[in-house]
Amino acid sequence: MKVVIASDHAGFTYKTLLVKDLQQAGYEVIDLGTHGNTPDDDYPDYAEALALAILKKQAERGILICGSGVGVSVAANKFRGIRAGVCHDTYSAHQCVEHDNVNVLCIGERIIGIELAREIVFAFLKAVYSHAPRHQRRLDKIEAIENKNMKEERL
Fold this sequence. Notes:
155 residues, alpha/beta, Ribose 5-phosphate Isomerase B, Chain: A, 5-stranded parallel β-sheet, 6 helices, 15% strand, globular
């Protein structure tokens, strides 16, 4: 599976560690930065780059890391077809894929420890969307909301 990962300065340490973990586990990883601990970088820039990579089908899933996970989630969810969820436990990490077909995991480096972050990332990546009728019905409703309220994304 191809995975795209990005962070701002507040997620740089975890991103660096997780890239190595993912590569060791056999994932093909596209690292969109940040490539240094620069406090002037802005999380919306990295969320946008990652969302566009997913929408252009450069990767199947994405991982965004900032201080809390919230900012990158808000920014990524501005793109039609992106379903980004903040997960700070393993249940939410796999359930969000199984029920909601989430394609971007958002975590906060200032919220959880690195070992839990690793467990969450792998729970997210190993999960599979269920296609259960009730889950698909709900996903269809989310897509209808997107279609009604969002302009066409320009790739």
